[in-house]
Design brief:
Helix content is 29%, strand content 19%. The protein is of the alpha/beta class and 253 residues long. The chain has a single domain, classed as Glycerol-3-phosphate (1)-acyltransferase. α1 packs across α2. Pfam families: Acyltransferase.
């Protein structure tokens, strides 16, 4: 018999933001800089190296996580790539990219920059906050493109909002799939699933990595973007069947 969920959380729409903070409506300041100084970049490299060392023990022993099929990334080490994932852990989703790759960059909502303690360190950790106005969009896209040309991995959570321990794949933001069309690189997905733990109150997690996927070059750009979105979504829905424990039950109202 499957263990009973520990709690129930309610939502109206699948696009709701479940985790609410007092800075929920925070937007980037007009003078936010996506391009940084050499000193900042050196400090960022140091911090990311430290996080990389800590990521494996944190993911394994604190979040009880294991990764399946990680070998599909091996032929693409040292290349730019896109990795899409379902957003189910406010903290774990910060460390998993460092477990999977070296010096990753992660698209985040600006509100994350206001998190206590960790928020101010996130830019040093390699995050790219999503802009709130058109004036910031060009330097944002330059940072995204630079990630690929610098042979780094760009992690994207297309569900946009974190739903802790969610076991279903929510709708994806179509705009999240424009980047592989504009700056081509291999595309992967990672699907986090949850299983009951005999030894811990919270569930253990298994992450499945799949790919590479490539946009269909025979299609027009917009259709190519939608087709890639469908391919990634379908793959993650299939992997989500490996969820065997619903730690939090989400109920629509």
């Amino acid at each position: 018999m499957r263990p009973k969920a520990q709690k129930t959380m309610f939502y109206h729409q699948l696009t709701d933001d479940i985790v609410i903070t007092k800075h929920q409506d925070y937007q980037l300041p007009p003078d936010y800089r996506y391009q940084r100084s050499a000193t900042f970049n050196a400090a960022s490299h140091l911090l990311q190296s430290l996080v990389k060392c800590a990521a494996t023990p944190i993911c394994r022993w604190i979040f009880h996580t294991k990764i399946e099929n990680k070998s599909v990334l091996a032929p693409f080490r040292g290349q730019g790539m896109y990795i899409y994932g379902n957003h189910t852990s406010p903290v774990g989703d910060v460390f998993v990219p460092f477990w999977l790759t070296k010096r990753p960059r992660v698209l985040i909502a600006p509100v994350n920059l206001k998190l206590p303690i960790i928020g101010s360190l996130l830019p040093l950790g390699g995050v790219i906050p999503i802009p709130g106005n058109l004036h910031q969009y060009r330097p944002f896209l330059k940072a995204v493109t630079g990630t690929i040309t610098n042979q780094q991995a760009l992690f994207i959570y297309p569900e946009a909002h974190v739903w802790p321990y969610a076991t279903t794949i929510r709708p994806f933001a179509t705009g999240a799939f424009r980047y592989p069309i504009e700056t081509p690189a291999p595309v992967f997905c990672m699907t986090t699933t949850y299983q009951h733990s005999r030894w811990h109150r919270r569930p253990r997690a298994t992450i499945y990595v799949d790919g590479p996927f490539y946009p269909d070059e025979s299609l027009p750009p917009k259709a190519r973007q939608r087709a890639l979105q469908t391919t990634i979504h379908d793959c993650m829905v299939q992997r989500s069947q490996n969820n065997t424990y619903e730690y939090i039950h989400y109920q629509q109202i």
